[in-house]
Give the backbone structure.
Amino acid sequence: MRYELYYWTGAQGRGEFIRLALEDVAADYIDVARKRGDNAMMPFLRGKQAGALPFAPPFLKAGRMVIAQTATILAYLGPRLGLVPGGLSAEIYAQQLQATIADIVFEVHDTHHPISASLYYEQQRSAARKRSQAFREERIPKYLDYFESVLARGNGRQALSRHSYVDLSLFQLISGLDYAFPNTMRRMQRQIPRLRALAERIAERPNIAAYLASPRRIPFNEDGIFRRYPELDPVR
Amino acid sequence: MRYELYYWTGAQGRGEFIRLALEDVAADYIDVARKRGDNAMMPFLRGKQAGALPFAPPFLKAGRMVIAQTATILAYLGPRLGLVPGGLSAEIYAQQLQATIADIVFEVHDTHHPISASLYYEQQRSAARKRSQAFREERIPKYLDYFESVLARGNGRQALSRHSYVDLSLFQLISGLDYAFPNTMRRMQRQIPRLRALAERIAERPNIAAYLASPRRIPFNEDGIFRRYPELDPVR
Protein backbone atom coordinates (compact mmCIF):
# COMPACT_ATOMS: atom_id res chain seq x y z
CA MET A 1 0.00 0.00 0.00
CA ARG A 2 1.16 3.55 -0.72
CA TYR A 3 0.66 5.61 2.43
CA GLU A 4 -0.15 9.30 2.17
CA LEU A 5 1.26 11.42 4.99
CA TYR A 6 -0.25 14.87 5.53
CA TYR A 7 1.69 17.39 7.56
CA TRP A 8 2.58 21.08 7.39
CA THR A 9 5.54 21.85 5.17
CA GLY A 10 8.39 23.85 6.61
CA ALA A 11 9.06 22.09 9.92
CA GLN A 12 9.66 18.59 11.23
CA GLY A 13 7.01 18.98 13.89
CA ARG A 14 4.93 16.01 14.94
CA GLY A 15 4.98 14.67 11.38
CA GLU A 16 8.62 13.70 11.85
CA PHE A 17 7.75 10.83 14.20
CA ILE A 18 5.72 9.30 11.35
CA ARG A 19 8.35 10.02 8.70
CA LEU A 20 11.03 8.23 10.72
CA ALA A 21 8.90 5.08 10.94
CA LEU A 22 8.11 5.12 7.22
CA GLU A 23 11.71 5.85 6.25
CA ASP A 24 13.20 3.22 8.57
CA VAL A 25 11.49 0.42 6.67
CA ALA A 26 11.60 2.17 3.28
CA ALA A 27 7.80 2.16 3.14
CA ASP A 28 6.07 3.38 0.01
CA TYR A 29 4.71 6.81 0.97
CA ILE A 30 4.07 10.32 -0.29
CA ASP A 31 4.60 13.39 1.86
CA VAL A 32 1.57 15.00 0.30
CA ALA A 33 1.80 18.64 1.41
CA ARG A 34 5.46 18.82 0.42
CA LYS A 35 4.40 17.75 -3.07
CA ARG A 36 1.18 19.70 -3.44
CA GLY A 37 1.27 22.37 -0.74
CA ASP A 38 -0.39 22.77 2.63
CA ASN A 39 -3.75 23.37 0.96
CA ALA A 40 -3.90 19.68 0.09
CA MET A 41 -4.78 19.08 3.75
CA MET A 42 -7.74 21.42 3.84
CA PRO A 43 -10.45 19.12 2.45
CA PHE A 44 -9.70 16.63 5.23
CA LEU A 45 -9.61 19.24 7.99
CA ARG A 46 -12.88 20.69 6.70
CA GLY A 47 -14.51 17.27 6.74
CA LYS A 48 -14.96 16.94 2.99
CA GLN A 49 -13.97 13.26 3.01
CA ALA A 50 -15.92 10.37 4.50
CA GLY A 51 -14.98 8.59 7.70
CA ALA A 52 -12.67 9.74 10.46
CA LEU A 53 -12.26 13.48 10.98
CA PRO A 54 -8.76 14.73 11.91
CA PHE A 55 -8.45 17.52 14.46
CA ALA A 56 -5.05 18.59 13.11
CA PRO A 57 -2.07 17.30 11.11
CA PRO A 58 -0.31 14.93 11.05
CA PHE A 59 -2.76 12.50 9.54
CA LEU A 60 -2.23 9.47 7.38
CA LYS A 61 -4.31 8.11 4.56
CA ALA A 62 -4.01 4.34 4.41
CA GLY A 63 -6.30 3.00 1.71
CA ARG A 64 -9.72 4.31 2.71
CA MET A 65 -8.76 4.99 6.31
CA VAL A 66 -7.80 8.44 7.56
CA ILE A 67 -5.90 8.35 10.86
CA ALA A 68 -4.85 11.37 12.92
CA GLN A 69 -2.84 11.84 16.13
CA THR A 70 0.84 10.86 16.04
CA ALA A 71 0.55 8.07 18.64
CA THR A 72 -2.54 6.62 16.96
CA ILE A 73 -0.90 6.65 13.52
CA LEU A 74 2.08 4.79 14.97
CA ALA A 75 -0.18 2.33 16.82
CA TYR A 76 -1.69 1.56 13.40
CA LEU A 77 1.56 1.48 11.44
CA GLY A 78 3.64 -0.41 14.02
CA PRO A 79 2.36 -3.93 13.33
CA ARG A 80 2.01 -3.24 9.60
CA LEU A 81 5.58 -2.01 9.16
CA GLY A 82 7.06 -4.63 11.50
CA LEU A 83 7.99 -1.86 13.92
CA VAL A 84 6.62 -3.36 17.12
CA PRO A 85 7.15 -6.82 18.65
CA GLY A 86 4.20 -9.20 18.27
CA GLY A 87 1.61 -9.69 20.98
CA LEU A 88 -0.95 -7.57 22.78
CA SER A 89 1.22 -6.73 25.73
CA ALA A 90 4.08 -5.33 23.59
CA GLU A 91 1.67 -3.38 21.38
CA ILE A 92 -0.04 -1.82 24.37
CA TYR A 93 3.28 -0.96 26.04
CA ALA A 94 4.48 0.67 22.82
CA GLN A 95 1.30 2.75 22.71
CA GLN A 96 1.75 3.82 26.33
CA LEU A 97 5.36 4.86 25.73
CA GLN A 98 4.41 6.76 22.59
CA ALA A 99 1.65 8.58 24.51
CA THR A 100 4.26 9.59 27.08
CA ILE A 101 6.52 10.87 24.30
CA ALA A 102 3.53 12.86 23.02
CA ASP A 103 3.21 14.40 26.49
CA ILE A 104 6.79 15.64 26.64
CA VAL A 105 6.51 16.92 23.05
CA PHE A 106 3.46 18.89 24.18
CA GLU A 107 5.50 20.33 27.05
CA VAL A 108 8.38 21.20 24.71
CA HIS A 109 5.96 23.16 22.54
CA ASP A 110 4.69 25.04 25.56
CA THR A 111 8.19 26.14 26.61
CA HIS A 112 8.08 28.66 23.76
CA HIS A 113 4.29 29.07 23.70
CA PRO A 114 3.16 28.94 27.34
CA ILE A 115 0.27 31.39 26.89
CA SER A 116 -1.15 30.80 23.42
CA ALA A 117 -0.18 29.07 20.19
CA SER A 118 -1.72 31.94 18.27
CA LEU A 119 0.55 34.62 19.74
CA TYR A 120 4.13 35.08 18.58
CA TYR A 121 6.93 33.81 20.78
CA GLU A 122 8.02 37.42 21.31
CA GLN A 123 4.64 38.19 22.87
CA GLN A 124 5.06 35.55 25.58
CA ARG A 125 8.78 35.62 26.15
CA SER A 126 8.66 36.33 29.87
CA ALA A 127 6.34 33.39 30.61
CA ALA A 128 8.41 31.28 28.19
CA ARG A 129 11.53 31.94 30.25
CA LYS A 130 9.82 30.81 33.43
CA ARG A 131 8.22 27.77 31.89
CA SER A 132 11.49 26.76 30.25
CA GLN A 133 13.33 26.97 33.55
CA ALA A 134 10.85 24.56 35.15
CA PHE A 135 11.01 22.36 32.07
CA ARG A 136 14.83 22.22 32.12
CA GLU A 137 15.15 21.68 35.86
CA GLU A 138 12.25 19.34 36.54
CA ARG A 139 10.61 17.93 33.47
CA ILE A 140 13.57 16.98 31.25
CA PRO A 141 15.21 15.03 34.12
CA LYS A 142 11.92 13.39 35.09
CA TYR A 143 11.05 12.24 31.56
CA LEU A 144 14.58 11.20 30.58
CA ASP A 145 15.14 9.29 33.83
CA TYR A 146 11.91 7.51 33.07
CA PHE A 147 12.89 6.57 29.51
CA GLU A 148 16.35 5.55 30.73
CA SER A 149 14.62 3.16 33.18
CA VAL A 150 12.41 1.88 30.38
CA LEU A 151 15.54 0.96 28.38
CA ALA A 152 17.15 -0.63 31.45
CA ARG A 153 14.09 -2.82 31.98
CA GLY A 154 14.00 -3.86 28.34
CA ASN A 155 17.16 -5.46 27.01
CA GLY A 156 19.14 -2.34 27.91
CA ARG A 157 19.33 -1.28 24.28
CA GLN A 158 15.74 -0.90 23.20
CA ALA A 159 12.43 0.10 24.77
CA LEU A 160 10.79 -3.20 23.86
CA SER A 161 12.19 -6.68 23.23
CA ARG A 162 13.35 -5.61 19.78
CA HIS A 163 13.62 -2.52 17.57
CA SER A 164 10.35 -0.57 17.38
CA TYR A 165 8.80 2.74 16.45
CA VAL A 166 9.26 3.81 20.06
CA ASP A 167 13.06 3.69 19.62
CA LEU A 168 12.75 5.84 16.49
CA SER A 169 10.64 8.35 18.42
CA LEU A 170 13.12 8.39 21.32
CA PHE A 171 15.85 9.19 18.79
CA GLN A 172 13.76 12.13 17.54
CA LEU A 173 13.07 13.30 21.08
CA ILE A 174 16.76 13.27 22.03
CA SER A 175 17.71 14.98 18.75
CA GLY A 176 15.12 17.67 19.31
CA LEU A 177 16.13 18.28 22.91
CA ASP A 178 19.79 18.47 21.82
CA TYR A 179 18.78 21.15 19.34
CA ALA A 180 16.54 23.19 21.64
CA PHE A 181 18.31 22.72 24.99
CA PRO A 182 21.97 22.00 24.15
CA ASN A 183 23.36 23.23 27.47
CA THR A 184 20.90 21.28 29.57
CA MET A 185 21.44 18.15 27.51
CA ARG A 186 25.22 18.47 27.83
CA ARG A 187 24.88 18.61 31.61
CA MET A 188 22.62 15.55 31.54
CA GLN A 189 24.94 13.55 29.31
CA ARG A 190 26.11 11.08 31.95
CA GLN A 191 22.64 10.45 33.34
CA ILE A 192 21.30 9.03 30.09
CA PRO A 193 23.90 6.57 28.74
CA ARG A 194 21.30 4.17 27.34
CA LEU A 195 19.32 6.88 25.59
CA ARG A 196 22.54 8.27 24.11
CA ALA A 197 23.63 4.87 22.84
CA LEU A 198 20.16 4.23 21.43
CA ALA A 199 20.10 7.57 19.61
CA GLU A 200 23.49 6.82 18.05
CA ARG A 201 22.47 3.37 16.91
CA ILE A 202 19.28 4.72 15.35
CA ALA A 203 21.19 7.43 13.47
CA GLU A 204 23.42 4.71 11.99
CA ARG A 205 20.64 2.49 10.70
CA PRO A 206 21.18 2.56 6.92
CA ASN A 207 17.73 3.83 5.94
CA ILE A 208 17.72 6.43 8.72
CA ALA A 209 21.26 7.60 7.91
CA ALA A 210 20.27 7.97 4.26
CA TYR A 211 17.12 9.85 5.23
CA LEU A 212 18.91 12.22 7.60
CA ALA A 213 21.41 13.06 4.84
CA SER A 214 18.66 13.63 2.27
CA PRO A 215 16.68 16.79 1.50
CA ARG A 216 13.61 14.95 2.79
CA ARG A 217 14.83 15.65 6.35
CA ILE A 218 13.84 19.24 7.07
CA PRO A 219 16.48 20.85 9.31
CA PHE A 220 15.41 21.81 12.84
CA ASN A 221 14.21 25.41 12.80
CA GLU A 222 12.22 27.94 14.79
CA ASP A 223 8.90 27.04 13.15
CA GLY A 224 8.89 23.56 14.66
CA ILE A 225 8.25 22.06 18.08
CA PHE A 226 11.92 22.03 19.09
CA ARG A 227 13.22 25.61 18.81
CA ARG A 228 16.55 27.05 19.79
CA TYR A 229 16.02 30.31 21.64
CA PRO A 230 19.24 30.84 23.59
CA GLU A 231 17.50 32.66 26.45
CA LEU A 232 15.42 29.54 27.10
CA ASP A 233 18.56 27.46 27.70
CA PRO A 234 21.25 29.64 29.29
CA VAL A 235 24.83 28.34 29.64
CA ARG A 236 24.53 29.02 33.41
CA MET B 1 -11.20 -10.51 35.54
CA ARG B 2 -11.02 -8.07 38.44
CA TYR B 3 -9.31 -4.90 37.21
CA GLU B 4 -7.18 -2.85 39.58
CA LEU B 5 -7.24 0.90 38.92
CA TYR B 6 -4.46 3.01 40.42
CA TYR B 7 -4.97 6.75 40.70
CA TRP B 8 -4.39 9.50 43.23
CA THR B 9 -7.11 9.80 45.83
CA GLY B 10 -8.73 13.16 46.37
CA ALA B 11 -9.53 14.25 42.83
CA GLN B 12 -11.26 12.91 39.73
CA GLY B 13 -8.31 13.78 37.54
CA ARG B 14 -7.40 11.61 34.60
CA GLY B 15 -8.48 8.51 36.51
CA GLU B 16 -12.11 9.54 36.07
CA PHE B 17 -12.09 8.69 32.36
CA ILE B 18 -11.23 5.11 33.32
CA ARG B 19 -13.72 4.97 36.19
CA LEU B 20 -16.57 6.03 33.91
CA ALA B 21 -15.81 3.18 31.48
CA LEU B 22 -15.60 0.60 34.26
CA GLU B 23 -18.75 1.90 35.97
CA ASP B 24 -20.80 2.11 32.78
CA VAL B 25 -20.59 -1.64 32.26
CA ALA B 26 -20.49 -2.49 35.98
CA ALA B 27 -17.07 -4.07 35.55
CA ASP B 28 -15.44 -5.83 38.49
CA TYR B 29 -12.74 -3.41 39.67
CA ILE B 30 -10.98 -2.03 42.73
CA ASP B 31 -9.98 1.60 43.03
CA VAL B 32 -6.80 0.56 44.80
CA ALA B 33 -5.46 3.81 46.24
CA ARG B 34 -8.86 4.75 47.63
CA LYS B 35 -8.80 1.45 49.52
CA ARG B 36 -5.16 1.30 50.55
CA GLY B 37 -3.84 4.84 50.14
CA ASP B 38 -1.69 6.57 47.53
CA ASN B 39 1.36 4.64 48.71
CA ALA B 40 -0.04 1.51 47.09
CA MET B 41 1.04 3.03 43.75
CA MET B 42 4.67 3.54 44.69
CA PRO B 43 6.05 0.06 43.98
CA PHE B 44 4.79 0.38 40.39
CA LEU B 45 6.09 3.91 39.89
CA ARG B 46 9.47 2.83 41.32
CA GLY B 47 9.65 -0.11 38.95
CA LYS B 48 9.38 -2.84 41.59
CA GLN B 49 7.05 -4.93 39.44
CA ALA B 50 7.92 -6.77 36.23
CA GLY B 51 6.84 -5.64 32.78
CA ALA B 52 5.58 -2.25 31.68
CA LEU B 53 6.72 0.79 33.65
CA PRO B 54 4.14 3.56 34.19
CA PHE B 55 5.28 7.19 34.00
CA ALA B 56 2.42 8.40 36.18
CA PRO B 57 -1.07 7.41 37.34
CA PRO B 58 -3.59 6.43 36.18
CA PHE B 59 -2.51 2.89 35.49
CA LEU B 60 -4.48 -0.31 35.35
CA LYS B 61 -3.50 -3.78 36.40
CA ALA B 62 -5.26 -6.35 34.24
CA GLY B 63 -4.07 -9.81 35.17
CA ARG B 64 -0.29 -9.61 34.71
CA MET B 65 -0.41 -6.55 32.48
CA VAL B 66 0.22 -3.05 33.80
CA ILE B 67 -1.07 -0.34 31.46
CA ALA B 68 -0.58 3.41 31.88
CA GLN B 69 -1.78 6.49 29.98
CA THR B 70 -5.51 7.19 29.95
CA ALA B 71 -5.96 6.79 26.20
CA THR B 72 -3.94 3.55 26.15
CA ILE B 73 -5.90 2.08 29.05
CA LEU B 74 -9.14 2.86 27.21
CA ALA B 75 -7.76 1.44 23.94
CA TYR B 76 -7.18 -1.78 25.88
CA LEU B 77 -10.45 -1.79 27.81
CA GLY B 78 -12.70 -0.67 24.95
CA PRO B 79 -13.00 -4.01 23.12
CA ARG B 80 -12.94 -5.99 26.39
CA LEU B 81 -15.78 -4.04 27.99
CA GLY B 82 -17.81 -3.81 24.77
CA LEU B 83 -17.24 -0.06 24.75
CA VAL B 84 -16.13 0.37 21.15
CA PRO B 85 -17.72 -0.84 17.92
CA GLY B 86 -16.00 -3.83 16.32
CA GLY B 87 -13.44 -3.50 13.54
CA LEU B 88 -10.04 -1.92 13.09
CA SER B 89 -11.28 1.31 11.65
CA ALA B 90 -13.64 2.05 14.58
CA GLU B 91 -11.02 1.09 17.15
CA ILE B 92 -8.43 3.35 15.57
CA TYR B 93 -10.88 6.26 15.27
CA ALA B 94 -11.81 5.83 18.94
CA GLN B 95 -8.12 5.97 19.86
CA GLN B 96 -7.60 9.09 17.80
CA LEU B 97 -10.58 10.84 19.40
CA GLN B 98 -9.43 9.84 22.88
CA ALA B 99 -5.94 11.20 22.13
CA THR B 100 -7.57 14.49 21.14
CA ILE B 101 -9.52 14.52 24.40
CA ALA B 102 -6.20 13.94 26.20
CA ASP B 103 -4.84 17.00 24.41
CA ILE B 104 -7.61 19.32 25.58
CA VAL B 105 -7.37 17.88 29.10
CA PHE B 106 -3.67 18.74 29.03
CA GLU B 107 -4.56 22.29 27.98
CA VAL B 108 -7.18 22.54 30.74
CA HIS B 109 -4.53 21.61 33.29
CA ASP B 110 -2.21 24.28 31.94
CA THR B 111 -4.83 27.02 32.31
CA HIS B 112 -4.16 26.95 36.06
CA HIS B 113 -0.56 25.72 35.82
CA PRO B 114 0.93 27.47 32.76
CA ILE B 115 4.45 27.74 34.21
CA SER B 116 5.02 24.64 36.33
CA ALA B 117 3.02 21.82 37.89
CA SER B 118 5.26 22.00 40.95
CA LEU B 119 4.42 25.61 41.78
CA TYR B 120 1.17 26.59 43.46
CA TYR B 121 -1.56 28.18 41.39
CA GLU B 122 -1.09 31.39 43.37
CA GLN B 123 2.51 31.59 42.17
CA GLN B 124 1.49 31.60 38.49
CA ARG B 125 -1.79 33.46 38.64
CA SER B 126 -0.87 36.19 36.19
CA ALA B 127 0.21 33.75 33.46
CA ALA B 128 -2.83 31.61 34.31
CA ARG B 129 -5.12 34.54 33.59
CA LYS B 130 -3.56 35.08 30.17
CA ARG B 131 -3.48 31.42 29.24
CA SER B 132 -7.09 30.98 30.36
CA GLN B 133 -8.22 33.87 28.21
CA ALA B 134 -6.65 32.26 25.13
CA PHE B 135 -8.09 28.91 26.16
CA ARG B 136 -11.61 30.32 26.58
CA GLU B 137 -11.59 32.39 23.41
CA GLU B 138 -9.75 30.10 21.01
CA ARG B 139 -9.24 26.59 22.27
CA ILE B 140 -12.61 25.70 23.81
CA PRO B 141 -14.45 26.78 20.63
CA LYS B 142 -11.95 24.99 18.40
CA TYR B 143 -12.10 21.68 20.29
CA LEU B 144 -15.85 21.72 20.91
CA ASP B 145 -16.64 22.66 17.30
CA TYR B 146 -14.49 19.72 16.32
CA PHE B 147 -16.26 17.25 18.62
CA GLU B 148 -19.63 18.65 17.55
CA SER B 149 -18.63 17.86 13.94
CA VAL B 150 -17.50 14.39 14.98
CA LEU B 151 -20.98 13.74 16.40
CA ALA B 152 -22.63 15.19 13.29
CA ARG B 153 -20.62 12.83 11.09
CA GLY B 154 -21.45 9.82 13.23
CA ASN B 155 -25.12 9.13 13.72
CA GLY B 156 -25.62 12.58 15.25
CA ARG B 157 -25.91 11.14 18.73
CA GLN B 158 -22.62 9.33 19.30
CA ALA B 159 -19.01 9.72 18.23
CA LEU B 160 -18.93 6.27 16.64
CA SER B 161 -21.62 4.03 15.17
CA ARG B 162 -22.74 3.07 18.66
CA HIS B 163 -22.12 3.91 22.33
CA SER B 164 -18.40 3.88 23.22
CA TYR B 165 -15.83 4.96 25.77
CA VAL B 166 -15.34 8.12 23.68
CA ASP B 167 -18.91 9.21 24.51
CA LEU B 168 -18.24 8.64 28.21
CA SER B 169 -15.09 10.74 27.97
CA LEU B 170 -16.92 13.51 26.11
CA PHE B 171 -19.46 13.55 28.94
CA GLN B 172 -16.59 13.97 31.42
CA LEU B 173 -15.02 16.70 29.31
CA ILE B 174 -18.25 18.68 29.11
CA SER B 175 -18.93 18.19 32.82
CA GLY B 176 -15.44 19.38 33.69
CA LEU B 177 -15.63 22.42 31.42
CA ASP B 178 -19.03 23.29 32.91
CA TYR B 179 -17.44 23.20 36.35
CA ALA B 180 -14.28 25.14 35.51
CA PHE B 181 -15.60 27.57 32.89
CA PRO B 182 -19.33 27.98 33.61
CA ASN B 183 -19.65 31.41 32.01
CA THR B 184 -17.86 30.43 28.83
CA MET B 185 -19.87 27.22 28.55
CA ARG B 186 -23.14 29.09 29.06
CA ARG B 187 -22.25 31.40 26.19
CA MET B 188 -21.39 28.40 24.00
CA GLN B 189 -24.59 26.56 24.83
CA ARG B 190 -26.23 26.96 21.42
CA GLN B 191 -23.12 26.05 19.46
CA ILE B 192 -22.90 22.55 20.88
CA PRO B 193 -26.40 21.02 20.78
CA ARG B 194 -25.17 17.51 20.02
CA LEU B 195 -22.55 17.51 22.77
CA ARG B 196 -25.17 18.78 25.24
CA ALA B 197 -27.64 16.10 24.25
CA LEU B 198 -24.92 13.45 24.45
CA ALA B 199 -23.85 14.58 27.92
CA GLU B 200 -27.45 14.43 29.14
CA ARG B 201 -28.01 10.96 27.75
CA ILE B 202 -24.80 9.68 29.33
CA ALA B 203 -25.75 11.11 32.73
CA GLU B 204 -29.03 9.19 32.50
CA ARG B 205 -27.54 5.81 31.74
CA PRO B 206 -28.55 3.72 34.76
CA ASN B 207 -25.06 2.66 35.83
CA ILE B 208 -23.65 6.14 35.29
CA ALA B 209 -26.53 7.81 37.13
CA ALA B 210 -26.01 5.42 40.06
CA TYR B 211 -22.27 6.09 40.00
CA LEU B 212 -22.66 9.87 39.89
CA ALA B 213 -24.99 9.72 42.91
CA SER B 214 -22.64 7.45 44.86
CA PRO B 215 -19.72 8.38 47.12
CA ARG B 216 -17.44 6.73 44.53
CA ARG B 217 -17.80 9.87 42.40
CA ILE B 218 -15.40 12.39 43.94
CA PRO B 219 -16.87 15.89 43.57
CA PHE B 220 -15.03 18.32 41.28
CA ASN B 221 -12.55 20.29 43.37
CA GLU B 222 -9.47 22.49 43.13
CA ASP B 223 -7.03 19.57 43.34
CA GLY B 224 -8.16 18.12 40.03
CA ILE B 225 -7.67 18.97 36.39
CA PHE B 226 -10.87 20.99 36.11
CA ARG B 227 -10.74 23.77 38.71
CA ARG B 228 -13.08 26.65 39.33
CA TYR B 229 -11.08 29.79 39.84
CA PRO B 230 -13.54 32.63 39.12
CA GLU B 231 -10.82 34.97 37.81
CA LEU B 232 -10.06 32.44 35.06
CA ASP B 233 -13.64 32.60 33.76
CA PRO B 234 -15.01 36.11 34.27
CA VAL B 235 -18.72 36.84 33.72
CA ARG B 236 -17.60 39.53 31.19
Remarks:
- The mean pLDDT of chain B is 97.
